[in-house]
Each structure stands twice: as C-alpha cells, then as structure tokens.
Write a structure and sequence with these properties.
CATH architecture: 3-Layer(aba) Sandwich
CATH topology: Glutaredoxin
Number of helices: 5
Order of helices and strands: HEHEHEEHH
Largest sheet: 4 strands, mixed
Number of strands: 4
Oligomer: single chain
Length: 103
C-alpha cells in the first residue's frame, strides 16, 4: 500500500462516519457533496468527519482507487464504503441508511 492509500485508509478508519467530499460540511463545493451532507443531516448524524479532497490532489485521485469508485463524494461507515450521493439518497429514501447509521 503506497503512502496516499495508507493515509486514506487511516482516514477511513479514524471515525465511525467519514465523508470524502468537495468542500466542507459548512461550505460544500459541488451539488453532490451538498446533497450528501443534507442526507446525513436528515439522518441525524452528529459526529461526522469530512475530508475536503480539494485540499489534496493526491487524496482526490487516491480515494477513487481506494474504493474503486470513480466519483466524489464517498461515504464510509465503520471503515466500509457505502457509496456516493445517489446511493446515499436511495438508501435514505428506503430507510436503509438510517438503519446503518443507527447500528
């Protein structure tokens, strides 16, 4: 595992809920990241770690390889990849995301 992948792995496992996004929770820099934050807020997530991929190009590219997922944002819960904003929205609408986050 190279240095960037190790850093990403450490970030993913650093907290229970981690979102790699463009911008911050207070100032999302794209609509998909904004939607991801809205979904997590609607689920009542209080302790959320966000990683602004715009601050580090190596992380921005490396996270796509880490999960073999081409887009950002990416949500991780308990160190496991959940998906991007579309998957988060679908899971929220079905109640699956709330159950995952409550577990």
């Amino acid at each position: 595992m190279d240095d960037v992948q190790k850093r990403i792995d450490d970030l993913v496992k650093s907290d229970r809920v981690v979102l790699f996004m463009k911008g911050t929770a207070q100032f999302p820099m794209c609509g998909f990241s904004g939607r991801a934050i809205q979904v997590l807020d609607a689920c009542g997530v209080e302790k959320l770690t966000t990683v602004n991929v715009l601050d580090d190009e190596a992380v921005r590219q490396g996270i796509k390889q880490y999960a073999n997922w081409p887009t950002i944002p990416q949500l991780y819960v308990n160190g496991e990849f959940v998906g991007g904003s579309d998957i988060m929205t679908e899971m929220y609408q079905s109640g699956e995301l709330q159950r995952l986050l409550a577990a």
